[in-house]
What we know:
- The protein has 3 domains: 19-86; 108-460, YVTN repeat-like/Quinoprotein amine dehydrogenase (Methylamine Dehydrogenase, Chain H), CATH 2.130.10.10; 502-556.
- Helix 8 (503-545) crosses helix 9.
- The chain has helices at 36-45, 54-86, 113-119, 122-126, 370-374, 437-449, 480-490, 503-545, 549-556, and strands at 25-26, 32-33, 130-132, 138-142, 148-153, 157-162, 167-173, 180-183, 189-193, 198-202, 208-212, 218-224, 229-234, 238-243, 249-254, 262-265, 272-275, 280-284, 293-296, 302-307, 313-318, 322-327, 334-339, 347-350, 356-361, 364-369, 382-387, 393-398, 404-409, 412-417.
- It is of the alpha+beta class.
- A hairpin with a 5-residue loop joins strand 10 (198-202) and strand 11.
- Helices cover 24% and strands 28% of the residues.
- It has 9 helices and 30 strands.
- The strands form 8 sheets. A 4-stranded antiparallel sheet has the order 3-30-29-28. Strands 4-5-6-7 form a 4-stranded antiparallel sheet, with no helix packed on it.
- WD repeats lie at residues 295-336.
- Pfam families: BING4CT, WD40.
- This is BING4 C-terminal domain-containing protein.
- Residues 1-20, 470-545 are annotated as: Disordered.
Amino acid sequence: MSASGEAPVEPPKRQRLEAEEVHVAVDDSGEVKLDNKTFRDIAKKYRKVDGLGKKGVKRMAKSLKQRRDLRHKSMIQEADEAQLVATEIFARNDDAGGIEMDDGVRKSYNVSQKELASQVDIGTQRKLFDFHLPGGPFTVNTSTNGRYMVVGSRGGQFTVLDRHSMNPLCSEQLDEPILDTTFLHDHTLFAAAQRKYTYIYDSATGAEVHCLKDHLNSTHLEFLPRHYLLVSGSETGEIRYRDVSTGQHVAKIVTRQGPIQSMRQNPANAVMVTGHARGHVCMWTPNIKEPALKMLAHFGQVTALDVTSDGKYLVTCGSDSKWKVYDLRKPSEELQRCSFSGRAPTSMDISFGDADLAFGFGSSVSVFRGSDVFRSGKAPSTYLKNSYNGQQVSSVRFVPYEDLLLVGTSAGFNSMLVPGAGYTQFDSYVANPYETTKQRRETQVRSLLEKLQPDMIALDANFIGRVQAPKKKVTKPLSDSEESEAEEESFAAKHKMRGKSKAGKRQQRMNKMRGEAERKRRSRRAGESKVDVEEKSLESARAEHGALARFYVNKSD
């Protein structure tokens, strides 16, 4: 309060110009359309602003309009980012996870399957199963997206299961043993290698669709999805390729290595890798009849093998109770060598993302981490173990996008929990475990349109699109006999008149030409020999005197 009793007058505050209070029109080019009435209103309201004329009002209105638009866009962007983060679209997790022990004393391979099953969610618990059936041993395989599995037994029974619902699509009992099974382009068709022929069945009804009589005595089956090729390996050492989209027989290769003990494909370049009884590992393409690569991996039978999804590493198992890792970029050297205590692995598999390796030997299954095997120089340690008392493990196969391992034994088949084995980021364009019937048909049509030809299979998949330089013609020096024959052909005497073409005259001319050619040849050889002598003397001088060799050569001459 002042002395006169009146309240002091506060200085007027500078009013803030807000974008919402300015009602002006801005065209597409950014020019402000301001009429006289609007100018008077703004000037009257903001008369405290010094030096604010008509141009100043235009500049301020334009900047505020741009500021308002920018604020609106930023609000929309923040809302979109919040929604994307909430739905975890951008939440990429490259770490597949695994088992971490808290106490540091207990090892991960001592954790039993019952303990793991009690710690996982209900959805994963429903996918665990254990079937005890007669007629073993059983072989297991999965579809590309991992949702369906096919089981075949030596007793002649095959079954196709939907693992999400655990409902069987079909189940039939045959009179012949089933040695191997594989799905084709999707789960609707699968192939089975039986005693004599190879058959293709419908997964929905179990009916026989085709009988491939030229695929005789097949023991191993593989399907190349990018080429639509069904590949079979027989006990007679033959590899056959068949295009299932056209039914055409593509190639037949006789390996001359004896029965095929194991066979897998390289997912990166579609090259078939086979293991044989003498310890050799061969790689085959349908374009050539000889192996593209042959290496001695073991001193005994190669019982199992597999290649990583990127095609860089090869893992082989032998009857010498050892398993080895090779870098295919330099296959002459071993990357790892490990052994089991007196037991030879009978089957093995590498997970889709190369996260884990599973080995089946005897009545046990051992799992190793891929990071320890492929990316470290130390000996890998066992990650998980599981024993099947009284049963022999015949086949193991990882489920592509889940932490599950399918195991076929002599008394049935079951599933095993392997934390961290599933591939965390799946591409629905390649394989979708939750695809509908319409999506499956669209994928089939797209894959047929993008089908590759068999002649595009090679060890180096990047050769397509390269321009090969023309080969230079290498001319070999002629031998003495070839030179004499060429000279005799050039010594054809010309026909002359006035008695000069008589036999004696023609022989004289030919002898004269031969003599001249012989003198030229001798002089040329003498020059070549002189050059050789000079080069040899220079080399000897270099070996003795080094950089001063040329002075000693000239001095000796």
